[in-house]
Amino acid sequence: MISLAKSRIMHAMDSQYLATLVDDRLAQGVFRVHPDVYASSELFDAEQKHVFERTWIFLGLESQIAKPNDYLVTWIGRLPVLVTHAADGVRRAFFNVCRHKGTVLCRLESGNTRFHVCGYHGWAYDAAGRAVDIKDQPSGGYTEAFTRDNHDLVPLGAFASYKGLMFGSVSAQVPPLETFLGEMRFFLDLAMEQGAQGMEFVPGRIGFTYNGNWKAQLDNSSDAYHLTSTHLSFMEVQRRRADSVSGNQAARQFDWKKRFEQEGGAYTFLNGHNVIWLNQSEDTKRPVYPQIDEVRARVGDLKAEWMLRLRNLTVFPSMQIADSTSLLIRTFRPVAVDRTEMRYYCLAPIGEAAEVRQWRLRQFEDFFNVSGFATPDDTAMYEDMAVGLKAAQIGYVQGYARGIGVQTAGPDALARAAGVMPISSASGMFDLQAETWGHALYREWARLMQSGVAGEPAWPQAAGAAQ
Amino acid sequence: MIPSTHVSIATRLLYREAALLDERRWDDWIALFAQHCEYWVPTWRTEAELATDPQRELSHIYYASRAGLEDRLVRIRSGRSPATTPMRRTAHCVSNIELLNAAEDRLEVRSTWANHVFDPHHRTQLVLFGWSEHRLEYGSGGWLIARKKIVLQNDQLPAMIDIYCL
Question: What distance in Å separates the CA atoms of residue A122 and residue B147, rounded to the nearest whole number?
Fold first, then answer.
């Protein structure tokens, strides 16, 4: 292990330096991460290329582009992406870039159109990505070589869906989506099978930007340890509601005292994914509860029981589902080492009863909104981390140590009963608040960074999942 | 013809509301709202379309009564919210006040607002802006706000938004 002082002056692309960033010695009871991982702009540029452009990234829901010619616009890291639903019924994902001059092609976030026409010189593409009009081509004095050239939109390297969740990859050299998701499929099912007619995003755009690294958000969704310090003001509000001192009961929010009496835990999985869970003392406050008999009949007792537990999951690197109050999908997009754009989506069953939808909305807004009671306190901490982590002199941060002492390899009894196989399990009463979920994230980050810098494939076994 | 006294009632109340937020006189501020006051900050559905139904679409904030605002004050005063410590300083500017409807005991008012927000922790500042619709009602407590809808034009939000940011 080289000294931290030395590591600071070495080039970020040095593989020896990269190997020091995640101090992964679980056998000795140690898992630590170097401040540069969150604060180095050289590493940030490298991770765009080696992490975000070499793995599957969540793009949106199939139900967002339910009809032919529907489209949505999103991002993979810093690259603009267009997802379409063509008249042939096939969904496809492209770089949202006109072939003529490299201008962003589609300038609206979503819509429905048969043709995407570039605003600059009018080149037009159909929803299947074919170039259907090079404006004024006959009079343009083009050569035969140009005519022979391909002018269609450039598809992503890979595109696939799982249970209505669409993912894309810049690189074609990725494993099939289902292999990449692996055991996470069980937990994704728990979100995506709540509605008999499928799931949708409730209309309404929630986006915000914080001045911090994307990994602060990557961590926070799994972090139960911060609740009793960062969210004390929310707990105070919630206590007044539970005691009926507050007249604002619309969110039907949970009684936090009761959470401490519950068992919970953390799982890590292959490919950087993780899940935390907590047993539920107030299942009647879950918006899925009024439909639980229908759900149980459709998906079985095991999944129905799991749907009532609190679950937060991360699909590495940039998609999270939180089902801790009402159901949330969160994506984040790093735009600079210390700047991150967030999107929050309220995920709900299609055709949900109006009164349940209202309750879901109030619960979501109350906790998750950046204009709500919880998220602003998290993001305040992310911004303070961005300031503090410039001090690499403090050495490795110690935020992935809780729970190592009780963690076991493989599944615990609960996972085994569900038929899922985590790499590691850590469970106990709520106040264990294990941080072992971080091991999955930073092992995968280090793996992708190290192989990328070494010029090795990210997924040696992947033949490439063609679009 | 709307009597000019109605315009001045509305103007006075809107200016007062802005000043009380800037001066952090929370009890005086909340006293301007009727118990049944609806407080609504809709999201944008798309770049061009505002959400229109808080029961079917996400809102930034939606409270069907003043109790939601009272919860906000508990949080602000708790001293336990990192996003609220230290408190941001604000300067609310309200202008373009227009009476849309007036009755003896009821006024509908549209105004344009810009709020300058300074964060003494990071020493950064920003401006949030939009327009508001107030419904003012006259009762035993005098003129009170019975509904406030706040349209936030710059909705790629900073890392925190609270009632005093709007």
Answer: 47
Which candidate in A75, A110, A113, A233 is best for mutational testing of the B interface (most B CBs within 10 A)? Answer: A233
Look at residues A325, A132, A308 and name the one whose alpha carbon lies nearest to residue A227: A325
The two domains A61-160 and A180-453 share their CATH topology (first three levels equal):
no
How far is the alpha carbon of A65 from chain B, nearest alpha carbon, in Å? 14
For residues A237-250, average pLDDT: 90
Q: What kind of fold does domain A61-160 have according to CATH?
A: Rieske Iron-sulfur Protein (2.102.10)
Would you kindly state where each structural domain of chain A is located, as residue ranges? Answer: 61-160, 180-453
* Tokens 């702009």 belong to residue: A41
Helix residue ranges, H only, A26-168: 36-39, 41-47, 144-148
d(CA A114, CA A68): 8
A61-90 residue pLDDT tens:
999 999 999 999 999 999 999 999 999 999
Angle at A17 between CA A11 and CA A21, to 5 degrees: 120
Residue A334: closest CA among A153, A47, A77, A96? A77
Burial class (CB in 10 A: 0-12, 13-18, 19+), A29: exposed
* C-beta atoms surrounding B48 within 10 Å: 7
Q: Any residues with CB less than 8 A from the CB of A291 and at least 6 apart, and which?
A: A194, A196, A349, A356
What distance lies between CA A82 and its chain's CA centroid? 18
Residue A464: the pLDDT is: 52
What is the per-residue DSSP string for A395-431?
-SB-TT-TTTTT-EES--HHHHHHT---SEEEEEEGG
In chain A, residues with a C-beta closer than 8 Å to the C-beta of B157 are 207-209, 370-371
Q: Do A236 and B71 touch (CB under 8 A)?
A: no
Closest by CA position to A197, among listed A60, A352, A412:
A352
Mutate to test the interface with A, among B37, B39, B43, B55 (most CBs of A within 10 A): B43
Q: Which value does ipTM take for this structure?
A: 0.96
Judging contacts by C-beta atoms under 8 Å, the chain B residues touching residue A209 are: 156-159
What is the rounded distance in angstroms from the CA atom of residue A288 to the CA atom of residue B39?
A: 27
A 10 A CB-CB count for A9 gives: 7
Strands annotated E in A299-423? 310-315, 319-323, 328-336, 339-349, 408-409
Domain B4-165: assigned CATH number: 3.10.450.50
Mutate to test the interface with A, among B44, B50, B65, B80 (most CBs of A within 10 A): B80
Residue count (chain B): 166
Residues from chain B contacting residue A202 (CB–CB below 8 Å): 56-58
Mean pLDDT of A337-365: 97
Q: Across residues A323-332, what is the average pLDDT?
A: 95
- CA B133 to chain centroid, in Å, comes to 9
Say whether A237 and B71 touch across the interface (CB within 8 A). Answer: yes
What are the φ/ψ torsions at residue A258 (nearest 5 degrees)? -70, -20
- Chosen CATH of A180-453 out of 3.40.120.10, 3.90.380.10, 3.40.50.300, 1.10.260.40: 3.90.380.10
